[in-house]
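STRUCTURE:
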C-alpha cells in the first residue's frame, strides 16, 4: 500500500505540475491543420477559456480514475480504471498543447481539482466496484453533455480545438459504455444531481481562474 501511495503521489505531481505527454495517440488537431484559420482576439479568448475548462476537467479525470484504481476490489476493475486514466492523459496533453497555441494558461486551481477528485474517486471505490463503475458511467455521461455544450460555444472557425473535443467526446462515451458493460450500478438521482452541481462549480470557476 505504501508503494501504491507513493506512485499515486508521483502521478498527481506529474499531472498537476509536469508537462503532459500524449503517450499513445497523435493530437487530433494535427489533422485539422489544413483548415486552420487565424482567430481574432475575441475568438481566441473564448477558445482559450473553454479549453482551460476542459484541461481542468482532464486533471480531475486523472484523479478520479487513479482514486478508483487505488481502492478497487477487483483486479479487472482496477485495470479498467488504469487504462481509462492513460487515455485521459492523452486528452490532458492535447488540451494543454491547444491552450499554449492560443497563448493562454491552465487553471491555477488544478491542485484543488486533483485533490478533491482523487478523494471522491477513492471513496467511490471503497463503496464497491459496481458503485465505482456506476460513478464512472455517470461522470462520463455528464462529460459528454458538457462537451456538446462546448462544441456549440467554440468559435466557428476553431477547427483545431473542435477536432480535439470531438475525439474526447468519442472516448468519454466509450468509457461510459465500457463501465456499464463491466457491471456499473445505476446511481440514485440525488447523487447524480450533486455530481452535476459539483461539476458546474468547477467548470464555471476554471473558465476564469
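SEQUENCE:
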Amino acid at each position: 500500500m505504501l508503494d501504491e501511495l507513493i506512485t499515486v503521489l508521483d502521478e498527481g505531481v506529474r499531472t498537476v505540475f509536469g508537462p503532459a505527454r500524449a503517450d499513445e495517440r497523435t493530437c487530433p488537431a494535427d489533422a485539422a491543420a489544413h483548415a486552420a484559420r487565424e482567430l481574432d482576439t475575441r475568438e481566441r479568448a473564448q477558445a482559450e477559456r473553454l479549453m482551460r475548462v476542459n484541461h481542468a476537467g482532464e486533471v480531475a479525470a486523472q484523479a478520479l480514475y487513479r482514486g478508483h484504481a487505488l481502492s478497487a476490489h477487483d483486479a479487472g476493475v482496477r485495470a479498467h480504471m488504469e487504462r481509462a486514466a492513460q487515455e485521459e492523459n492523452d486528452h490532458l496533453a492535447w488540451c494543454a498543447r491547444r491552450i499554449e497555441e492560443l497563448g493562454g494558461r491552465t487553471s491555477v486551481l488544478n491542485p484543488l481539482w486533483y485533490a478533491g477528485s482523487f478523494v471522491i474517486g477513492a471513496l467511490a471505490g471503497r463503496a464497491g466496484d459496481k458503485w465505482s463503475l456506476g460513478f464512472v458511467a455517470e461522470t462520463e455521461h455528464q462529460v459528454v453533455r458538457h462537451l456538446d455544450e462546448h462544441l456549440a460555444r467554440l468559435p466557428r472557425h476553431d477547427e483545431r480545438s473542435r477536432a480535439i473535443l470531438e475525439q474526447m467526446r468519442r472516448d468519454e462515451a466509450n468509457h461510459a459504455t465500457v463501465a456499464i458493460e463491466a457491471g456499473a450500478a445505476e446511481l440514485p438521482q440525488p447523487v447524480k444531481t450533486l455530481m452535476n452541481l459539483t461539476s458546474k462549480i468547477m467548470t464555471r470557476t476554471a473558465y476564469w481562474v
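REMARK: The helical segments are 2-17, 41-71, 75-101, 110-126, 129-153, 159-181, 189-206.
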